[in-house]
Amino acid sequence: MGSKPEPRSQLATGRASESGLSETRSTSRAALLGRDYHGINFELLCKPGDRVMAGSPLMRDARRPEIVFTAPVAGSVVKIERGTRRKLVSLQIELDATPGITHYTPFAPQDKASLRRFMLESGAWTALRTRPFGNIPDADGEPAALFITAMDSEPLAPAPASIISTFSAEFDAGVGALAVISDAPLYVCHAKDFLPPVTGSERVRCVPFSGGLSAGLPGVHINALCPIGFAGGEVWHIGYQDVISLGHLMLSGTPWQERMITIGGVAVQNPRSLWVPPGASIGELLEGELHDDPVRIYSGSAVRGHVVSRGEKFLGAGQRQITVLPEPGIDSPRGRQGTAGVLIPSDRLEALAPPGIYPVPLMRALQVGDVDRARSLGALELVEEDLALLSHACPTRSDYGLLLRNVLNQLEGAG
Asked: Is the distance from CB of 278 to CB of 257 less than 8 angstroms?
């Protein structure tokens, strides 16, 4: 791997501008967030004051040191914020193009070991997630199947079809690489009205999905095509912009330093799409964009996103949107705390439950922390986003994503 100073890559920015998809917005800071990576014990490879190139290694997993986290942008490390028990909250970089961009050396594109090593060294491996547990997979792991989420059913999210079409060569190159790193089937899950530009491996299968707010979730695709169940297997998944990023890395040898997001919600004066640096400061992106009333900022959609907290006001890994709503009043269901109401079966809960899940028994098991019962009811197939609609609809106002994560942590520790 070699490097040389040069300005930020203009490939993505130029192509986006030519397509007319949206405007480009920069910020003075970007960050990596600890909460985006479950089960990682971060070992820092830098310190405040260090100047880093885009693509420079910043951290690694102390338990699996081959898994490296790289700088999303060039600049200076200005802050490493930690929370309770010294857990990493954010590693923040002040943007400056002067340090340059990392160049990765060519590799054998059809060699599994070489390509995995390339993804690990460049940080691209950290975009992969497992089911169960939602972790970064082991470097020598073998999935039963690999899923690419080439669609989005979140309210106000960017349109994947336009982005994938603009970067069709990068997307296809990324799909081709993912078909090499595993011998398992590779599913490209897409909306019915858009067929992604995919060529190459016979293991790649494009599968259309439709139907409501959950149609774009990896959990829905996994349940339909390769359910985990009790077989003890593992599947991997990755988002379409991370596939484009991998393809850009393969074709150019440099990191892709742009991501498409939307800013939206009734508190935003001019909802629209933006090309921004990965990990960009949310506060800076929203400057001059909001109405004057008190607001609540969500990382993601108002349906499955979470409220942005201090120290985490940056775009998270894979985040595609920022949603801003008026701050709820004390009489709003979103503004009150505690438990109220009774959890009883209803057609609404059945309609909002993930496929193959009996919602009320699972919700009750999660509420009381019955790990064995939750596992028997399908908890291993789920992560937080799969239960967001049930949290919204439940009269007890429980956060089933948080309760599920508690159960998953216990199941993972017991394994």
From this structure: yes
Using the 8-state DSSP alphabet, how is residue 289 labeled? T
- Report the first-to-last Cα separation within the chain, whole angstroms: 37
Residues 194/152, Cβ–Cβ less than 8 Å: no
Q: State CA 191 to chain mean position distance.
A: 19
User: What digits encode the pLDDT tens for the residues 201-252?
Assistant: 788 999 999 988 999 999 999 999 999 865 668 999 999 999 999 999 999 9
How far apart CA 332 and CA 219 sit, in angstroms, is 30
Residue 241 vs residues 67, 151, 227, 347: alpha-carbon distances, Å = 20, 10, 24, 35
User: For helices 11-19 and 240-252, what crossing angle results, to 10°?
Assistant: 120
Q: Which of 67-71, 115-119, 297-301, 329-333 has the lowest mean pLDDT?
A: 329-333
Residue 2 burial (10 A CB sphere; 0-12, 13-18, 19+)? exposed
Query: What structural domains and CATH numbers belong to the chain?
Result: 124-253 (3.40.50.11540), 259-326 (3.10.20.600), 347-414 (no CATH)
**Rounded distance between C-alpha atoms, residue 295 and residue 298, angstroms:** 10
* Residue 338 buriedness (CB in 10 A; 0-12 / 13-18 / 19+): exposed
Q: Rounded to an integer, what distance in angstroms lies between the CA atom of residue 40 and that of residue 204?
A: 30
CA distances to 56, 95, 285 from 20, in Å: 31, 25, 20
Q: Which residues of 120-150 are buried (b: 16+ CB within 10 A; e: fewer)?
A: bbbbbbbbbbbbbbbbbbeeeeebbbbbbbb
Instruction: Find the mean pLDDT for residues 268-294.
Output: 95
Do the Cβ atoms of 152 and 160 come closer than 8 Å?
Answer: yes
Q: What is the pTM of this model?
A: 0.92
Confidence label for 20 from pLDDT (cuts 50, 70 and 90): low
- The two tokens of residue 291 are 């109405």
